[in-house]
Amino acid sequence: MIIADSNVIVARLISRDGHHAEATALLEKHPGEVFVTPSVLVEVSSVLRRNISDRAEAARLVGEVAETVGIASEAEETVKVAAALYEKRHGQLSLVDCLLACICRNRQATLLTFDEELKKAVGPT
Predict the structure, then answer these.
(1) Model confidence, pTM
(2) What is the CA radius of gyration of the chain?
(3) Residue 75 confidence (pLDDT)
(4) What are the backbone angles phi and psi of residue 93, rounded to the nearest 5°?
(5) Which of 47, 72, 76, 117 is 20 to 30 A from 103 via CA?
């Protein structure tokens, strides 16, 4: 299983993003294998609304993401563990990042991200 962070999805959708080419290559390398969590989808939506003046286009892109990747659910116990990690890390990572770290650990999933702190939190896969 491969789980993508919002920064990879956003970079793929926004051509002016500095990681656009790398994100596109990463996602194209794993067709049908990439998942996002609902919280990542919310983050993507928020970033797109701030960066794309046409709200209908931003909404269309979010819908496109939801249709082209799998959705990995966040179980209640995972959310509790992530909240504890968030507290332990004193907010160095967002709660969404803590959720991603926990999901990747639990599912032994590979994480696609440009966030070095999040990579450290996930550890080797």
Answers:
(1) 0.85
(2) 14
(3) 86
(4) -115, 150
(5) 47
